[in-house]
Design goal:
By secondary structure, the chain is mostly helical. The protein is 82% helix and 0% strand.
């Protein structure tokens, strides 16, 4: 017999995710309303039609390749761990991860859902935890390294076009570096990190920043995370070549996403700005917004795009370029991920009904 209480839990989750998506859409609506309030809809549509469709399709392919980059890392790691699976299934995990990351603050919802679906496919939780850990480390590390690289070797472009968002970039660096330093601390001194984490939980619960009744749960979570990262540290020390390969894949994956703005630039027949300069600015926008606690960085991403690219695209084209670029880098992936999530959950419900008949 089908467990209807479980069906109720699913409905609650669907409602929660719908509210998260609704929040993103509301923020986006008001952001775009502020940006386009002086323009009529026919004028906006006319500007959008001015982009070369062939370049837009290339941009869509780059967005899918970005998702495929994570799928390739998952597939590669599962092969290294002697877990036989298909690349198609890894694409499923990747789309699920990006969908839930995009609708949750600070992208916190993606990896737990990926691990849940891996477990459904009989992949051990220890393996999925290790894979997600390595993806997190390399994804953040590559962003910071790329940003440091462009700050050092392309500083003229940074100072000319990114000056208006310098404090956001500084904040982004602080947040990303703090996260990476915390990871290093857990790797090198897991016992210290565990003690520090427990102390922080104690202070935050005393200050009522966290609920006192949940103190034990938070403490257990800190211990579990530290133990998991310690396991990951041990694996990294013994398999540096695997980590280097993942780093290289992540660099290509990041470039696929960050190059979409240049692709949109070319779609409007513009070619005076070198690829590396547009890539530089998009990397810095990534640093500025990715750690902020906003679902999909909605609102702030659009603002940074306008600050960085108004002079490059020109006042007439920067707004439609923003719509296309954001549409490819965020809403296309969100839409495709939503379709995959819906199909997967329908399949799970159907399978459970058959098993319980």
């Amino acid at each position: 017999m089908y467990d209807y209480s479980r069906g109720g839990d699913i409905i609650k989750k669907v409602v929660k995710y719908a509210l998260d998506i609704g929040l993103i859409l509301i923020i986006t609506f008001f952001t775009l309303h502020l940006i386009f309030k002086e323009q009529e809809l026919p004028e906006i549509i006319h500007d959008l039609k001015g982009a070369d469709t062939r370049w837009i399709l290339i941009g869509a392919c780059a967005a899918v390749l970005f998702v495929a980059g994570e799928a390739l890392i998952i597939y590669y790691m599962l092969q290294v761990l002697d877990q036989k699976t298909s690349f198609r299934r890894c694409m499923k995990y990747s789309f699920i991860g990006f969908f839930f990351s995009y609708i949750t603050p600070s992208s916190t919802g993606g990896q737990p859902m990926q691990m849940y679906h891996m477990k459904k496919d009989e992949i051990k939780i220890g393996y999925s935890t290790l894979i997600m850990l390595l993806i997190t480390i390399t994804y953040k590390s590559v962003l910071v390294l790329m940003a440091l690289g462009v700050l050092i070797f392309n500083s003229d472009v940074v100072s000319k076009y990114a000056g208006d968002m310098k404090w956001l970039i500084v904040l982004g660096f602080v947040l990303n570096m703090s996260f990476i330093v915390a990871l290093i601390l857990v790797f090198l001194k897991p016992i210290w990190a565990r003690a520090l984490g427990i102390k922080v939980v104690d202070i935050l619960t005393r200050l009522r920043v966290m609920k006192r009744r949940n103190k034990e749960k938070y403490t257990e979570k800190v211990i579990r995370i530290c133990d998991t990262y310690a396991m990951g540290a041990d694996y990294i020390k013994r398999n540096l070549w695997v980590v280097l390969n993942i780093l290289l894949i992540t660099v290509v994956q990041r470039i696929c996403l960050f190059s979409i703005t240049w692709i949109v630039y070319r779609a409007y027949g513009l070619n005076s700005m070198p690829f590396i300069d547009i890539l530089t600015l998009q990397i810095l926008i990534g640093v500025a917004v990715e750690m902020l606690p906003l679902p999909g960085s909605a609102g702030i991403s659009e603002g940074c795009f306008l600050l960085a690219f108004s002079e490059i695209f020109g006042l007439e084209l920067v707004k439609p370029a923003l719509l296309i670029s954001r549409g490819l880098t965020f809403y296309l992936i969100l839409l495709l991920g939503g379709i995959v999530v819906f199909a997967v959950h329908c399949s799970i419900i159907k399978k459970e009904k058959k098993q319980n008949k």
